[in-house]
User: Fold Molecular chaperone DnaJ from Methylobacterium oxalidis.
Amino acid sequence: MDGTDPQKPGDEAPPGTPGSGENLCRRCGGSGKIGAETCPDCSGTGKVTTGVGGG
Ligand SMILES: [Zn+2]
Assistant:
């Protein structure tokens, strides 16, 4: 089981969770960085896994 993304602090659901999907990280706006720092929420990927259908 390699090649899977580790869960990131900004993720709301574990990878592979039914009903979840990747979305742009709201903290960094998808850039993966906040200023010169790597975004802690998405670990620099610019994307986080969030549940779908929730508020
Ligand atoms: Zn981010």
Observations:
- The radius of gyration is 11 Å.
- The chain is about 0% helix and 25% strand.
- The beta strands are 20-24, 33-34, 37-38, 47-51.
